[in-house]
């Protein structure tokens, strides 16, 4: 088969479409013929040499895919050859085929085409696990998501609205904010022109945000804690703004607030399977009824993954960028 390889770390040009050995499913795994994958910021970090795959996983980038089951390993039940699926991966999505633990497979939701389904596994698993399983967002609470027009952001807006939360977003352009508003966001904050701490306080009569989903890390840490309401929960899922920040423990104690930080890629298979099962139970019905939908900015040929990486680096997209075969 062919896959996107990274012979040497570097810029987008480091991505090379090359012939590699065919994968073979082992115990509890299935082989998926990949129709589409999606680009995540973690892929950019891997390309740059900063985010290696977990031991034993595929060396190729790609944390999610959609395609058809073509082979089934020992000990797998509930799936058959020919099933159309999408999957959460530890790597290997930028390829013609990928081996997937059966617990990380999802059926393609009714009403979603196979290519578009590649936009779902990583964002739904990230948002559901952090915002609902860990941070326990409840109806009537105020939820702030940074980068509201990203793949994560567009899904987070829709899921938070679906449970009855009030949603605030940050984004860098009017176009992106307008799109977030169309998805249901109630409070639109241009981070280039406005201070999100002050805007959230104004919008909540000084109370603050009950849950914050943050992709920036160190750069926003102190301001996020300032923005939290009493008993607020800050969920950190990225480090675009750096890895080391100062945390005011006194402020955190005074608010009886919590800060968590998680990633999906390195979790044990059983934890990923539990998250995927929760997504299938709670999110898939919302997609099937049309209350929640995947947002796709564009598709790019998989062999030209470098072009897709440039799009993410420019931050010119809204929603997900997909790689198609």
Walkthrough of the structure:
By secondary structure, the chain is of the alpha/beta class. It contains 11 helices and 15 strands. The strands form 3 sheets. Strands 3, 4, 5, 6, 7, 14 and 15 form a 7-stranded mixed β-sheet that branches. A 6-stranded parallel β-sheet has the order 10-9-8-11-12-13, with helices on both faces. A two-stranded antiparallel sheet has the order 1-2. Helix 4 links the parallel strand 8 and strand 9 (166-171). Helix 3 (121-134) crosses helix 4 (151-162), helix 3 (121-134) packs across helix 9 and helix 6 (196-203) runs parallel beside helix 7 (218-227). The longest helix has 14 residues, at 121-134. The two termini are 12 Å apart. The mean pLDDT is 97.
Mean pLDDT: 97
Low-confidence stretches: none
In terms of structural class, how would the helical and strand content be classed? alpha/beta
Please give the count of helices: 11
> Would you count the extended β strands for me?
15
Write the H/E string, N to C: EEEHEEEEHHEHEHEHEHEHEHHEHE
Identify the overall geometry.
globular
Helicity, as a percent range:
25-40%
Major sheet size, sense and barrel closure: 7 strands, mixed
CA-atom Rg in angstroms: 19 Å
What fraction strand? 25-35%
How far the N terminus sits from the C terminus, by CA atoms, comes to: 12 Å
